[in-house]
Amino acid sequence: MVTPWGEITDTIPQDEDFDLADIQRNGELIALTLTGPETYYDYHGRHLGAQYLLCQRFADKLGVMLRMEVCRDSAEMVQRLKDGEADLVCYPVTKKGPGWLVGQDKDDLQHELQAWYKPELLDEVKKEEEFLLSSKSVKRRVFSPMLNRENGIISHYDSYFQRYAATIRWDWRLMAAQCYQESTFDPQARSWAGACGLMQIMPGTADHLGLPRASIYDPEQNIAAAARYLGELDRTFSDIGERSERIKFVLAAYNGGHFHIRDAMALATKNGKNAHRWGDVEPFVLGLSQPQYYNDPVVKNGYMRGSETVDYVRKIHERWNGYRGIRTVRSTFAPSAVPQKATHERKKKYQI
Q: Taking residues 132-159, what's their average pLDDT?
């Protein structure tokens, strides 16, 4: 095509195979995968999964960006690869090498992949992921959960909690309990995923909330922004009429993402439970770590580490009760218990 600025040609060749040199020239490797703990999932706004981390290393080796696209099942992956919509299918490795499918007529990419892969790479990325998911990956000092119990002083930031919790009609001690769970009252806390400050706010979320990144570690501004975010989540779950119940959903969404919590609510509805009661939804938050649930057609956002979110809500409520002088009665519900499901399991047409 000729324009006033000269001739423009498509960066993707139309009449020849799109192989390694073209991928590197275009600057992007497109991979297809399925959601799951071993493949690819969202964790606090960052992507994880051994296959994703492995594919990211391969993309780094090629010197290109990685675009990972999630398919509903293996049949879709195979068809999209066949149609030339991606460069490879990123699926669990075998002992002989990556069990990935490379697009047709991409011999150079196939040879590059085979030359690059070493069995120890999978062990390396699994250890990397294990570290990222552990508390060791969060840089923070640990402070006492209560500064002065006799005088009811929880932290050095109580006045901020009192001021900004009031704007969303929360008990300030609940917000303090959440803060301890997030950062143990360390204003300089930082997670590997980039969450910052007392309330562990992600930079992207800070931008959305109008919190300047230069002020993200400022205690008052961090707490004020967190209150705004909690208020947004409260409105997101305004369909939950009972306030005490809605608080649990808001806390769960702050930790695990409101889209995952909505998935769990959809599962609860599908299984005849009350989607507005946390006790009914909690088992399905846990269930989203199992394929028969995260592959269910009503689930839109795939796998999540539900046990972490369930534990997050429980610990905050227990600490909140402690701050109020209320004795916590442990639920008889076992966190590891997930509803058994005999139907609705999706069958894969292809095994890769």
A: 81
